[in-house]
Design a protein that fits this description.
Layout lengths: L10 H17 L20 H11 L2 H10 L4 H19 L6 H19 L6 H25 L5 H9 L4 H6 L3 H16 L4 H13 L5 H24 L8 H14 L5 H18 L1 H21 L1 H13 L5
């Protein structure tokens, strides 16, 4: 049986932004090799509707992670929540892995956001990354080191080991450098240049593909396939990316090439979804502040009624059951 936290006031907002970001990722087109509303990309086992089933199954998970993060729970605790979310995802999709990478990466970011807001810090990408690294960085490094020594358990781990690539766990241990140093800046720059959301997200997606060690593509196409994805993305960007008048047909031509080779840069899609979430969270900062102010007022009211209630609340949260 699954268990549930009483969500902190900001938990639903963090979770809502996460689901919206994952929707934005699947809705984006052109997105070479991947599922969209236009087609199924390189996949024969999933469609956009499969992603919707997964999103519905995961809708509470990100709030649970924000709650756990707000309380400063251990990485082992967060991992248990993540494994439960993976199980619900696979049940909803009939065993198809639609969002395992996002369950890991975006889940960790939601936990960091919960911790950040609970500590009274303003939400921005720098504080978010610092919080992730200060709260769980050491445990993530231990986890990545242990995984590097152990027998690979997933296709991504096997591909990383076989081809000497950086795994998703290692990306997390480093504080998600691709997200914070490549994808998010590319997204923000494109928006500042006046591009619409669609074009800005495509630009960020290509910027990510150009540098990320995407173990999804390495699993499907070996090192040759992974390098083909990077080279294709670099070529698109070198030709001015979405600043080209014909950027849509150019990106769709690359999509066709990926489909012909069965290449699916799902890791890059996960990073893009995380960037969309950070962007949305930054836009929601006024709402976060309002929620925080309301929560502070409620806490003071509870203290006025019974001073012991506020002291015992975290333990009540730990004891309650969580369900999805």
């Amino acid at each position: 049986m699954s268990r549930c936290f009483s969500s902190p006031p900001h938990g639903p907002l963090i979770a809502r932004c996460a689901v919206r970001a994952l929707y934005a990722e699947v809705a984006l087109e052109p997105k070479p090799g991947l599922v969209s509303f236009r087609d199924n990309g390189s996949h024969t086992d999933m469609t956009a509707s499969t992603f919707f089933k997964s999103l519905f199954a995961l809708r509470h998970y990100f709030g649970h992670m924000a709650s756990a993060g707000a309380m400063g729970q251990s990485l082992e605790f967060l991992q248990a929540l993540g494994l439960g979310a993976e199980e619900r995802m696979l049940t909803a999709t009939g065993g198809i892995n639609t969002h395992r990478g996002a369950v890991f990466a975006l889940g960790l970011l939601c936990a960091a956001a919960g911790r950040l807001v609970a500590q009274g810090q303003p939400f921005n990408s720098d504080y978010l990354r610092q919080t992730l690294q200060s709260q769980w960085g050491q445990a993530l490094r231990w986890r990545a080191d242990a995984a590097a020594r152990a027998e690979p358990l997933s296709n991504g781990q096997r591909a990383a080991r076989s081809h000497g690539l950086r795994s998703a766990g290692e990306e997390a241990a480093l504080g998600f450098p691709t997200l914070f140093e490549v994808t998010l800046p590319a997204l923000q720059q494109a928006l500042q240049q006046g591009h619409a959301q669609r074009a800005a997200r495509v630009q960020a997606f290509f910027a990510t593909m150009a540098v990320l060690d995407d173990t999804n593509t390495a699993h499907r196409g070996g090192l040759v396939g992974a390098e083909f994805v990077k080279a294709s993305a670099r070529g698109f960007l070198a030709a001015s990316g979405v600043n080209q008048l014909d950027w849509v047909p150019q990106a769709r031509a690359i999509h066709a090439e990926f489909v012909a080779r069965r290449l699916s840069p799902g890791g890059s899609a996960d990073v893009l979804a995380c960037a969309c979430w950070v962007q949305e969270m930054q836009q929601q900062t006024p709402a976060l502040l309002a929620v925080k102010a309301g929560a502070a007022s409620n806490r003071q009211a509870r203290r006025d009624v019974h001073p012991a209630a506020a002291h015992s609340a975290p333990f009540a949260l730990l004891a309650s059951a969580w369900t999805a």
